[in-house]
Amino acid sequence: MAILLMLFLIGTFGLNFPIFLSTMSVTAFHAGAGQYGVLSSIMACGSVAGALLAAGCGRPTLALLLGAAALFGFACALAAVMPNYWLFGIMLVVIGIAAQTFTTSVNSSVQLSTAPAMRGRVMAILLAISAGGTPLGAPIVGWVADTFGPRWALGIGALSGLAAALVGVRYLVKHHQLKLHLDMRRWRLALSTDQH
């Protein structure tokens, strides 16, 4: 349930890339269709890299999901304040890596952690959240972009990633006694189990 909630938050409010890219390209950087296409291609490169990264990680853990969600949030926040087109493009690579790592790892994690008898039903819920969340969030994100500007819309994406990371942290604190402690003058995180 924690993973599905994380997916809902990012999928609904963070994966609205056509809105983010088009409004940033036209409004913030006064670029044309060609430059919008370049931004889309740059992000696609990041997505491919994220898919390869997720494939090479083996069995996904909640820590990987949490890290990808947090990276997505921070990258969206940084992209929102980028002063020019090319720096924005660089941040799109990071966003693409984080988004693809997150979504691929969610898919794998849910399939691997679900009992075989329930897997079909759980995957149907995951697909409904994945395919249905973005159209629900698009009007909200689009309204924010139209009313307050595209940088604020990207801020909504940033908040979705950070909120998803907080859901993961809450799960680890509640169910795996995640604790922050001081060890030899360094702060360390510790779990009560080795599973995550």
Provide an overview of this structure.
- It is built from seven helices and two strands.
- With 196 residues, it is mainly α.
- A two-stranded antiparallel ribbon has the order 1-2.
- The longest helix has 30 residues, at 119-148.
- The radius of gyration is 18 Å and the shape is globular.
Tags for this model:
196 residues, mainly alpha, two-stranded antiparallel sheet
Topology readout:
Blueprint: H1 2-13, H2 17-28, H3 33-56, H4 62-80, H5 85-113, H6 119-148, H7 150-176, E1 179-183, E2 186-190
Antiparallel strand pairs: 1-2
Q: Given the C-alpha coordinates, what overall shape results? A: globular
Low-confidence stretches: none
The percent range for helix content is over 70%
Q: Biggest sheet, strands in spatial order?
A: 1-2
Largest sheet: 2 strands, antiparallel
What gyration radius follows from the Cα positions, in whole Å? 18 Å
Order of helices and strands: HHHHHHHEE
Number of helices: 7
**Would you tell me the overall average pLDDT?**
88
Question: Structural class from helices and strands?
Answer: mainly alpha
The span between the termini is 16 Å
Strand content: 5-15%
Number of DSSP E strands: 2
How would you briefly describe this protein structure?
The protein is mainly α. The protein is built from 7 helices and 2 strands, in the order H-H-H-H-H-H-H-E-E. A two-stranded antiparallel sheet has the order 1-2.
